[in-house]
Amino acid sequence: MTITKKKGEYRFFYHYYKQYKKMSVHFKNQCLVVQDVVCLCPAETKWNKIQPNLTLQGFCKSVTIENDIAYIQ
Fold first, then answer.
1. CA 18 → CA 5, 22, 51, 53, distances in Å?
2. Which burial class, exposed, middle or buried, applies to 14 when counting CB atoms under 10 A from its CB (0-12, 13-18, 19+)?
């Protein structure tokens, strides 16, 4: 399954940030380090040859942070 971009959406991806023992969400050229991620839109896995080896990526309209939790919508 391939996820396609719709109007008004931007690429996001997130992965485990081992150094800080937290999650890292990348959206609109920002790296947001949070405790947990709630993804409310489709995401697919992407394997890399370098670290991070596994990321989850997709397209979303916004990423909001509340109480150190990133909500991807």
1. 29, 7, 10, 12
2. buried
> pLDDT tens for residues 32-53?
999 999 999 999 999 999 999 9
pTM equals 0.91
Evaluate whether 36 touches 23 at the Cβ level (below 8 Å): yes
- Torsion angle of alpha carbons 35, 33, 18, 27, nearest 10°? 120
pLDDT band with cut points at 50, 70 and 90 for residue 1: low
Q: Which two tokens stand for residue 29?
A: 């050229």
